């Protein structure tokens, strides 16, 4: 039993995932890609926790390491199951892991690639039920219930994915993720492949399902406007590390890390009289080349020598009396950043 925070359904501590870089005929390890580097956060029951950052910053790898599609290099992942028992996912044997995974659903990014084109909607949504031994008659009844829940007609069960639009396919993916009544849903960029006109519908559906079913979400996105719409709390990732974490309202009104402020400045504003002035220059660094110092120092306009020499720790901003705004920046209490 861990000292997981009260009401936390997921508690990630110092999670690391390093991929070896092999070179030469003998495939000797020449270094490591630090895809996830000392990541810690919690998800409370009924909360939507957002992971946001540029592509390649480690968001998806973090999610896959949590559910052990990747084996962690180090760290603990504590998950609270239905009976209140708290288990370390990273330490479970495979048989026990399968038993616990039924409480974790996953919605994938691309609704076109994540559905098997040779299977009917009935077979796709019923796959998790089949894997856990649910009888055929019960599977059909459950699939009909799930399709209704996500806004689709149960009469579509015999149809194939090609007969549906992108938004409808994502609804099918959501129905499949909910098949085993999970308590935690991991949504990996669930609307990024959809038309803007459809994105709001899917986000509203996810919000309604969260409230109706008492779900908790780990919501991964690179679009800050999506994160602001659906998340209660946000962790900002850069090169495998969390550089800032705060409640959504606080993060968007008082960003404390230069990277967060740069991401917000890069959002286009629907005002023809206001110039678009993104502050983020350069490219994301290579996670295989991380060393001492702040991971954002090579792009930060406020970087000083200490930023290149010493790695800042993720700690509470001293001006925040609620102890809920965490920042990894040497100058977090001195900078006045625009939201």
CATH architecture: 3-Layer(aba) Sandwich
Order of helices and strands: EEEHEEHEHHHEHEHEEHHHEE
Number of helical elements:
10
How far is it from the N-terminal to the C-terminal residue, by CA?
Answer: 40 Å
Dominant shape: globular
Strand count? 12
Contiguous low-pLDDT stretches (5 residues minimum) are none
How many domains? The number is 1
- Mean pLDDT value: 89
- Give the CATH level 1 class: Alpha Beta
Main β-sheet, spatial strand arrangement: 6-7-8-3-9-10-12-11
- CATH T-level topology: Rossmann fold
CATH homologous superfamily descriptor: P-loop containing nucleotide triphosphate hydrolases
Rg computed from alpha carbons, rounded to a whole number of angstroms: 21 Å
Structural class: alpha/beta
Share in helix: 25-40%
Describe the biggest sheet?
Answer: 8 strands, mixed
Q: How much of the residues is beta strand, in percent? A: 15-25%
């Amino acid at each position: 039993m861990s000292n997981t925070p009260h009401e936390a359904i997921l508690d990630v501590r110092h999670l690391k995932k390093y991929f070896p870089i092999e070179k030469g005929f003998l495939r000797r390890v020449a270094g490591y890609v630090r895809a996830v580097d000392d990541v810690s956060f919690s998800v409370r029951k009924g909360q939507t926790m957002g992971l946001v950052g540029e592509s390649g910053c480690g968001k998806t790898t973090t999610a896959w390491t949590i559910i052990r599609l990747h084996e962690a290099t180090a760290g603990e992942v504590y998950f609270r199951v239905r009976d209140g028992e708290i288990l370390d996912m990273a330490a479970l044997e495979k048989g026990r892991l399968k038993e616990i995974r039924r409480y974790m659903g996953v919605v994938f990014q691309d609704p076109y690639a994540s559905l098997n084109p040779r299977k009917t909607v009935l077979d796709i949504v019923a796959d998790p039920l089949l894997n856990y031994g649910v009888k055929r008659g019960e599977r059909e009844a459950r699939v009909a219930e799930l399709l209704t829940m996500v806004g689709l007609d149960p009469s579509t069960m015999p149809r194939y994915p090609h007969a549906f639009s992108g938004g409808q396919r994502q609804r099918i993916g959501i129905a499949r993720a909910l098949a085993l009544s999970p308590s935690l849903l991991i949504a990996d960029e669930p609307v990024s492949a959809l038309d803007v006109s459809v994105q709001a519908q899917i986000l509203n559906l996810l919000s309604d399902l969260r409230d109706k079913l008492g779900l908790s979400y780990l919501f991964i996105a690179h679009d800050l406007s999506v994160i602001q719409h659906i998340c209660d709390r946000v962790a900002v990732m850069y090169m495998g590390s969390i550089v800032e974490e705060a409640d959504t309202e606080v993060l968007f009104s008082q960003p404390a890390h230069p990277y967060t402020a740069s991401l917000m400045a890069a959002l286009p504003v629907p005002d023809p009289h206001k110039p678009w002035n993104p502050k983020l220059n350069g490219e994301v660094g290579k996670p295989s080349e991380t060393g001492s110092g702040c991971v954002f120092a090579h792009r930060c306009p406020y970087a000083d020598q200490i930023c290149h020499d010493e790695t800042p720790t993720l700690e509470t901003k001293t001006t925040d009396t609620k102890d809920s705004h965490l920042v990894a920046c040497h100058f977090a209490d001195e900078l006045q950043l625009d939201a």
